[in-house]
Write a structure and sequence with these properties.
By secondary structure, the protein is mainly beta. Helix content is 9%, strand content 39%. It is globular, with a radius of gyration of 16 Å. The structure holds dtdp-4-keto-L-rhamnose (TDO). Pathway: Carbohydrate biosynthesis; dTDP-L-rhamnose biosynthesis.
Length: 183
């Protein structure tokens, strides 16, 4: 597996070695030793999640607050998404900046989204199945988020269609400025 740090510190792209043969393919979706040796980050994932969505669904941008913050290792099992994460660490050089990558079931790349980031994705194909490991449990009271089309973060959802499908909760998310502007 190849592990590359993005321009956002602690945020990594993981490209697995895929073994193709007459039967299909095989790949390791997580290898704790290799992950920790390559990144220097100790992981202790405690929850695995999976969601299915059709083209045009946008989930995000989500995070959990305080002691419930989650690091996530995200991937696509079937279909494709544009995956986005935003650095919300106030002491970071890249505070407010985002990284995006297409994740699909061809390259099987994964993104490691560290604690202190918001995360979301827009779905590019019907019946896309998205899966991720989290290093902290879901906590409804600690849920937070930023509206996907926030003017300050200004994510280019480049492959998205006009007819985005969002949950009501995601349509009601606040702006970056309302969360972080002390003025
Ligand atoms: C995230 C989550 C949701 N749920 C429940 C709550 C709710 O009734 C239902 C659907 O939840 P949501 O609408 O929040 O699902 P979704 O919009 O898919 O939320 C996810 O979005 C992506 C972008 C992330 O990064 C994840 O961390 C998570 O926030 O599932 C759990 O039971 N456990 C969980 O870990």
């Amino acid at each position: 597996m190849i592990v590359e740090e993005t321009y956002l510190k602690d945020c990594y792209i993981i490209t697995p070695k895929v073994f193709n043969d007459d039967r299909g393919y095989f790949l390791e979706t997580f290898n704790k030793k290799q992950f920790e040796e390559s990144t220097g980050i100790k992981t202790s994932f405690v929850q695995d999640n999976q969601s299915k969505s059709n083209k045009g669904v946008l989930r995000g941008l989500h995070f959990q607050t305080g002691k419930h913050a989650q690091a996530k290792l995200v991937r696509v099992i079937k279909g494709s998404v544009l995956d986005v994460c935003v650095d919300l660490r106030k002491d970071s050089k890249t505070f407010g900046k985002y990284f995006s990558i297409v994740l699909d079931n061809i390259k099987h790349q994964q993104l490691f989204v560290p604690k202190g980031f918001a995360h979301g994705f827009v779905v590019l194909e019907d019946n896309t199945v998205f899966a991720y490991k989290c290093d902290n449990y879901y906590n409804k009271e600690a849920e937070g988020g930023i509206i996907y089309n926030d003017k300050t973060v200004n994510v280019d959802w480049k492959f998205s269609t006009d007819a985005l499908i969002l949950s009501q909760k995601d349509k009601d998310l606040p702006t970056f400025k309302s969360l972080f502007n002390d003025n």
